[in-house]
Amino acid sequence: MPDKFTEDVVALLPALKRFALSLCRRGDLADDLVQITAERAFRARDRFDPATQLQPWLFRILRNAWIDTLRRDATRGEVVDIHESPQPDPLDSAAQTDDRLTLNAVRRAMEELPNDQRQVLHLVCIEGLSYAETAATLDIPQGTVMSRLSRARLALAKSVGIDRDPSR
Question: What UniProt keywords apply to this chain's record, in alphabetical order (predicted)?
Answer without folding.
Answer: DNA-binding, Sigma factor, Transcription, Transcription regulation
